[in-house]
Design goal:
This protein folds into two domains: about 5-165, Rossmann fold, CATH 3.40.50; about 205-325, Zinc Finger, Delta Prime, domain 3. It is an alpha/beta fold and about 325 residues long. Strands 2-3-4-1-5 form a five-stranded parallel β-sheet, sandwiched between helices. It has helices at about 10-20, 40-50, 65-70, 90-100, 125-135, 155-160, 170-180, 185-190, 195-205, 210-225, 230-260, 275-280, 285-300, 310-315, and strands at about 25-30, 80, 110-115, 140-145, 160-165. Helices cover about 50% and strands about 10% of the residues. About 35% of the residues are buried. It is globular. It has 14 helices and five strands. Helix 4 (about 90-100) runs parallel beside helix 5 and helix 10 packs across helix 11.
Length: about 325
């Protein structure tokens, strides 16, 4: 899918007006929760910045030579920087190549545009390398950093970017859009993904639903003493560590709510309420809050150079009934 989403329109009108008036900053930090279309907004902005004759809404016309090159993925003045392999960092050599490119004159005579996504995947050397371009930006350059967790970026990076925040859409608007996409139970999908329509669509149409179910099965087995935290950590790492941590975070939030106010209907995972309540009933609420703090710390570190296997083991080990027996 490409192009703006319905809930992007208001922010896009403001952004397009600044672009057309020549008032764009040299660097934008595009933030917001996962699953709301930050990538699509960034791509739309890049195409608009490179277009020779933007349309009435300020987007790329799709007809000029510049648009043909962007649509073909061959525009010489546009760079996309992401990890070279899934689960890996953005490396200093990638940023070094980018900064060298940005220092050159635009081949097509307009903007030079770069999108770094997810920006939090830059390792420390890469982030430090990017600072020079942020401190002394080349002329006619637009650098867009995309992140679901902007606070995880170094303060030196954040302070040199203008923030642009995309929030989740109104629930009714999101439900209407999911209905248009043919999602069978849009209300449940949207609730489980905390109001993020693209994440809800992926849950309904992809393999995320099966992954979520498998993760909860592992988590339940661990809490009941039927599984090993080290083995589960290795499995979750292969499944996708960000997805694993996200679902674990939502289960902890639900368990705290259940423990605090009983069998509440206000759950992120209403379809798993019974299983989560069974785990929560054996625990003190203070322990649940402690584990939530630990998990939030892991979420802040997961995009940095850390031993992710050990990070998961540290999170999972306290959930087993006999943690001492699993320590090496």
């Amino acid at each position: 899918m490409t192009g703006l989403l319905p809930w992007h329109q208001a922010l896009w009108r403001h952004t397009a007006a600044r672009l057309q008036a020549g008032r764009m900053p040299h660097a934008l930090l595009l933030g917001g929760p996962r699953g709301i279309g930050k990538h699509r907004f960034a791509e739309h902005l890049a195409r608009a910045a490179l277009c020779e004759a933007p349309d009435a809404q300020g987007g790329g016309c799709g007809q000029c030579r510049q648009c043909h090159l962007t649509l073909a993925g061959t525009h010489p003045d546009w760079r996309r920087v992401s990890p070279e392999e899934e689960g890996k960092d953005i490396l200093v050599d990638q940023i070094r190549e980018l900064t060298q490119h940005l220092g050159l004159k635009a081949q097509m005579g307009g903007y030079k545009v770069a999108v770094i996504e997810p920006a939090g995947k830059m390792n420390m050397n890469a982030a430090n390398c990017l600072l020079k371009s942020l401190e002394e930006p080349p002329a006619a350059t637009l650098l867009v950093l995309v992140s679901a967790r902007p606070a995880s970026l170094p303060a030196t990076i954040r302070s040199r970017c203008q923030k642009l925040l995309l929030g989740p859409p109104p629930r009714e608007q999101a439900l209407a859009w999911l209905n248009e996409q043919g999602v069978e139970d849009p209300a449940l999908a949207l609730t489980v993904t905390q109001g993020a329509p693209l994440a809800a669509l992926a849950l309904a149409q992809g393999d995320e639903a099966a992954r979520r179910e498998a993760l909860l099965g592992d988590f339940t087995a661990l809490a009941e003493g039927r599984s090993d935290p080290v083995q589960i950590a290795a499995k979750w790492l292969k499944l996708n560590i960000n997805s694993s941590l996200y679902w674990m975070y939502t289960w902890l939030i639900d368990m705290i709510r259940i423990k605090a106010v009983g069998n509440t209907s206000v759950c992120i995972n209403p379809d798993y309420r019974g299983q989560l309540a069974k785990i929560a009933e054996k625990m003190e609420i203070t322990s649940l809050f402690h584990r939530l703090d630990q998990l939030q710390g892991a979420l802040r570190r997961v995009d940095r150079p850390v031993n992710k296997q050990l990070l998961l083991e540290d999170l999972l080990l306290p959930w087993t009934p006999n943690p001492a027996r699993h320590r090496g």
